[in-house]
Amino acid sequence: MTIAPYRLSEDPAELDMDRVVQWLSVDSYWAHGRPRDMVERSFAASYPCGVYSEEHGQVAVARLVSDAATFAWYCDVYVDAAHRGRGLGDALTRWAVTWAEQRDVHRLLLGTRDAHEVYRRAGFRPLRHPTVFMEIDRRPQRLGD
Fold first, then answer.
1. Which helix (H) or strand (E) holds 66?
2. Quick one: which of 43, 52, 47, 46 has its CA closest to 9?
3. Backbone angles phi, psi at 84, to 5 degrees
4. How far apart are CA 68 and CA 91, in angstroms?
5. Tens of pLDDT, residues 59-97
6. Contacts for 101-104: CB closer than 8 Å, 24+ residues apart
7. What is the mean pLDDT of the chain?
């Protein structure tokens, strides 16, 4: 898939893990402090998508955690600051929705603190039954969590 002058790729071998680790472990609010080995394991056990520029290399990333049959979790969506506002978040989200549709995966979830409109444009809505979901969250608590 291409969004001139960018290119999307599902090939995990193309991921620039140094950049991905920096974006998630240092720059993001949701994965701040996540150790490199955890980032690498999480991407190895999921379906990643990278966005690439011929001039700048990898400029964005996202991944799906899924059984490829009944459920997918869209997560770790990050667009490099220098490339924001160019539709890359929308393109990655369309990729995720299409990926799920192609596999007949009926439930696609995500969590966001600040990009609701990007996901709304792709068809995401608030949980129909939020009281149905529960969690175990062992992440260290941070201010604002």
1. strand 57-66
2. 52
3. -75, 160
4. 20
5. 999 999 999 999 999 999 999 999 999 999 999 999 999
6. 103/66, 103/68, 103/69, 104/69
7. 94
